[in-house]
Amino acid sequence: MCSQCADLDTTVPTGCPSSLTQVLKVIRDDLADATIAESAYWPPGQVAIDRPAFGSLPLEGPWPDYLEYYFTCLACDRRFRLAADIYHGRVGELVAAASLTRFGPQNSRRGKRKRMH
């Protein structure tokens, strides 16, 4: 964890559609200012799902039945996982994936952090 991704280093529940919308906005902002990058990582042994590109997800829905995306902090390589089970009504969470192995090149980023609240 670094100062660039420190505010993402907690579980952020997305228990209702409006909170998922807020998390999607923060992730888009962080992608746009190069705080994080979408990762091609997929957990070993887990069946990969067919999913649309993150940038094509509508902010307000409707969303696919299940979302799962991985992102990497470009400053320290920390991984984050967004998962949401829309179909079963468990909208999901954004969580730092501390147990995942490091991935990708280390880069610096510019810009100011946005808060999830």
Q: Assign an overall shape.
A: globular
Distance between the termini: 20 Å
| Chain-averaged pLDDT | 76
Q: Beta fraction of the residues?
A: 15-25%
- The oligomeric status of these chains comes to single chain
Strands in their spatial order, largest beta sheet: 1-5-4-3-2
Order of helices and strands: EHEEEE
Biggest β-sheet description: 5 strands, antiparallel
Describe the 3D structure:
The protein is of the alpha+beta class and 117 residues long. The chain has one helix at 17-32, and strands at 12-13, 36-39, 66-73, 79-85, 90-96. The longest helix has 16 residues, at 17-32. The model is unreliable at 99-117 (pLDDT under 50).
Characteristics of this structure?
117 residues; alpha+beta; disordered C terminus
Task: Give the secondary structure arrangement, pairings included.
Layout: E1 12-13, H1 17-32, E2 36-39, E3 66-73, E4 79-85, E5 90-96
Antiparallel strand pairs: 1-5, 2-3, 3-4, 4-5
What is shown here, in short?
By secondary structure, the chain is an alpha+beta fold. The chain has one helix at residues 17-32; strands spanning 12-13, 36-39, 66-73, 79-85, 90-96. β4 (79-85) and β5 (90-96) form a beta hairpin.
